[in-house]
Amino acid sequence: MGRPEEAPTAERAERAGPFTTRLTWPLPEGGTAVWESRAARKRGTLAVRGPGEAAARPRGADGVARARLHRLNATAAVSFVLGGLLFALGAALAQLGPHSPTSWAAVYFVGGAFFTAGAYASLLQAINAPRRESTAGALVTPHWNRWSYEPGRIDWLSTFTLFVGTLVFGVDLLDSFLQGLTTRQTDRLVWSPDMVGCLLFLISGHLSFVEVCHGRPCVRRRNLGWWIVAINQLGSALFLISALATFTRPETGSPISVAIANWATFAGAVCFSLAGVLQLFEHP
Fold it and tell me: How confident is the model at residue 2 (pLDDT cuts 50, 70, 90)?
């Protein structure tokens, strides 16, 4: 049997640029505690290893924090599942059905509303996550807040970027109802916000990877959070491909490829729905 790892004598922080993603510190009674950003905001836990113990065990926040995180996680997960399904339906109608552009634009718009709701619930989860505020091996439940400004926290920045991305998508989805636009107007009012929204989704996903991997490239096949982030990032990449394919060429007045745009949107939306289903299991 291997000997337990030697406990640290001082606090040790793991950083990715300016962001702290994991903290390890000695407990006053002996042993160590480990706080990780994603585990705290998603599961409401930190890991504690007592004196002489070979393995750490999770220690959860109080019942108020757990119930709060449960509700927010379920809201975000269900919203992403429904938003993804509606986007997939909109892409299928656009590609296969004899429906007018207004009909599938309406489906996209409702799906976008669900995406925004899911992103805001994710932001609330970061804002109201249990905090490590002492050297004790326990988390503290903060007062409920609907908004905060904490760009120094990677979980806040990732979820805030996602939320802004959904709002920008909303501009694109609203403008898609406009009729009789010129090529220049279509690219400016519809395509440009679509591209910005896709890039914000990718930035958010990159920050989530940094958070779960602690700043280093990693593949964690047994980590549910890693799979959720990876599938979401694949969906974001597919949305970007779709956006690139919808650019209206001035010389022809038509998109680069409607089929690529629709099928990439469909596949990306399925990714977001699948990640939403998995997120239902990443709870306190």
Answer: very low
Exposure string over 203-218, b if 16+ CB within 10 A, otherwise e: bbbebbbbbbbbbeee
Look at residues 282, 229, 280 and name the one whose alpha carbon lies nearest to residue 74. 280
Give the contacts of 143 (CB within 8 A, at least 6 positions apart).
none
pTM over 0.90: yes
How many other β-carbons are positioned within 10 Å of the β-carbon of residue 1?
Answer: 4
Q: What is the mean pLDDT of residues 66-92?
A: 97
DSSP conformation letters of 251-281: TTSSBS-HHHHHHHHHHHHHHHHHHHHHHTT
pLDDT score of 148: 96
Amino acid code (one letter) for 97: G
Give the count of alpha carbons within 13 A of 115, CB side only: 33
Length of the chain (residues)? 284
